[in-house]
Amino acid sequence: MLASLQRHLVLLLTLLSPGLVPHATAADRPNLVLIIADDMNWNDCGAYGHPHLRTPNLDRLAREGMRFERAYLTASSCSPSRAGIIAGRYPHNTGAEQLHWPLPGGSLTFVGRLKDAGYYTAAAGKWHLGNAVKDRFDAVAEASTAGFVLPTGDGPAPARMIAQSPSGCEDWVATLKKRPKSRPFFLWLAALDPHREYEAGALNPPHRLEDVVVPTHLPDTPEVREDLRLYYDEIGRLDRYVGEVLAELEAQGVADNTLVLFISDNGRPFPRDKTTLYEGGIRTPWIVRWPARVRPGTVTASLVSSVDIAPTMLAAAGLPAQPSFEGVSFLSVLDDPSAQVRQFAFAEDHWHDYEDHGRAVTDGRWKLIRNDYPELPNTPPADAGRSPTWQIMLKLHEAGRLNNAQQACFVQPRSRFELFDLQADPGELRNLATEATHEPELDRLKTALDAWAERTGDYLPSKRTPDEFDRVTGEPDHSVRRRPRPSKQEMFGTNERY
Questions:
Q1: What are φ and ψ of residue 283, in 5° steps?
Q2: Phi-psi category of residue 21: left, alpha or beta, with phi > 0 → left and psi -120 to 50 → alpha
Q3: In sequence order, which residues have a C-beta less than 8 Å from that of residue 264 and are 6 or more positions away?
Q4: Is the CB of residue 439 less than 8 Å from the CB of residue 73?
Q5: Neighbours of 270 (CB within 10 A)
Q6: Rounded Cα gap, residues 47 and 18, in angstroms
Q7: How far is CA 97 from CA 31, 74, 245, 276, in A?
Q8: Which of 121, 139, 155, 157 is least enclosed, having the fewest CB within 10 Å?
Q9: What is the pTM for the complete model shown?
Q10: Nearest-CA neighbor of 194 among 165, 223, 214?
């Protein structure tokens, strides 16, 4: 009730404020399109320098717009990341910080604000936010997630999956075509690609094994290369749908005044990437095309966070940010790539298949990770745990054939703090936290993290959420499969933060 009253009060103030043009025609206000990949690493496309991964439409988006080099997510897990984006808040303040937890019904969202101001709002593809906030959209075309069914029966896990996983993008263009032409629009287009599980046939022609660039933290084996090759194919399939959306915008004659932002919700679904606070978990591709405003072919080193998307979308529409938002608008960067809107970006690690808790802060050059449960290993998510990559890594680890970089997910206990120089060590392979020469950087980032925690009301749960999957096999533990949401009392004591 309070959230509803707040939304209506903001709308009333908007209608009484001539500077916010609520009665302007659709042509006067930009259209807004947010495209979200599912589990795509930040540099796994041609626009970010991959030499062989075929992404012609993402490459075109970057050529015709602005590519962000230092863009970060607030979480390395699917639904907490998305919840933070739509609510404009850090996950620990959304009430949806753990995987699959839905946003509470009273959540204020930038999409609801756009709808109140006259925008047509629609979502198509993966829906991972809960039913309570669907009414922020005029239309929701929710994609099937049949391809994510947990394995059952005998045989290798991948063979027991549904045969043809959808891309999640099938309704994107149809949703764009159905919009009312008399109103500006916002579209939330969320893919299922390149989320696991993988199967052949996602892209024709497929990528080749020799196209694969194996990250340093993964062993270069035929099994790993094939796993990455199938991941590449799903990115290629996603890229095709991005191209179809761009073509439809042009066919409708609205491309010039449409802001298109492409990001991923978290990193690659491989060991030491997704669900971690390393670059492979929280750094994201971030490309903006807006021909009416953004100069083509521009690149910016300005630091941005996914918590900044909500205030930016509203600013682009000529609307004020909601008081609940915890990010800042990066609209000034679109006008001037050298503009700086934030000094630090912050990220969170919460329960995702397994218990864990951590925080990270970066200024774009230096990164500090704080592991709050250091006694636990950095286990990859369950779908990656069932993958050919993890299974071969288990065998190589047992045989003593993994190098130090490839053993990161087996380290137990982990360091409480990890400090990395991202410029000198982009793979985050050398922890500098214990080196005296880097103590000033360590202290500076610790101070920034502490100040952010105080400012946003961050907390350490008083009750841990148990694992739901086996940490070796990735198979479900049915004894804890129905994971209840802890009560506010259990999570916060007497300090309620929702």
A1: -85, 145
A2: left
A3: 36, 37, 38, 39, 40, 41, 42, 73, 284, 285
A4: no
A5: 25
A6: 40
A7: 30, 10, 31, 15
A8: 155
A9: 0.90
A10: 165
Average pLDDT over every residue of 244-256: 98
The percent of residues in the chain predicted with pLDDT above 90, rounded, is 82
Angle of CA points 369, 86, 140, to nearest 5°: 135
Would the pLDDT of 129 be above 70?
A: yes
Residues 6+ apart with CB under 8 A from 368: 360, 361, 362, 417, 418, 419, 433, 442, 445, 446, 449
90 and 348 Cβ atoms separated by less than 8 Å = yes
Phi-psi region of 467 (alpha: psi -120 to 50; beta: other; left: phi over 0): beta
Give me the chain's average pLDDT, please: 89
3-class DSSP state for residue 114?
A: helix
* Bond prior to 56 in cis (omega within 30° of 0): no
Q: Is 396 left (phi over 0), alpha (psi -120 to 50) or beta?
A: alpha
**Sign of the CA dihedral with 358 first, then 363, 367, and 368 last:** negative
Instruction: Write the single-letter amino acid at 477.
Output: D
- Alpha helices, H only, 317-417: 331-335, 382-385, 388-398
Give the pLDDT of residue 382: 94
* Token pair of 178 as six digits: 């159905």
| Structure tokens given for 354 | 């397994």
Q: What is the DSSP letter of 407?
A: G
> Do residues 118 and 11 touch, judged by C-beta distance below 8 A?
no
Residue type present at position 471: R
pLDDT at 482 over 60: no
Is there a cis peptide before residue 461, judged by omega within 30 degrees of 0?
no
Amino acid residing at 282: I
Pairing, β 345-349 against β 139-142: unpaired
Amino acid at 39: D
Q: Is 103 exposed, middle or buried (0-12, 13-18, 19+ CB in 10 A)?
A: buried
**Topology of the domain comprising 28-333:** Alkaline Phosphatase, subunit A (3.40.720)
**Domain range summary for the chain, segments of one domain joined by +:** 28-333, 349-492
Cβ contacts of residue 443 below 8 Å, gap of 6+?
none
DSSP annotation of 33:
E
> What DSSP string describes 207-269?
P-GGG----TTS---HHHHHHHHHHHHHHHHHHHHHHHHHHHHHHTT-STTEEEEEEESS--S
Give pLDDT tens digits for 195-225. Answer: 999 999 999 999 999 999 999 999 999 999 9
Bridge partners of residue 304, in order along the sequence: 71
Q: How far apart are CA 331 and CA 318, in angstroms?
A: 11
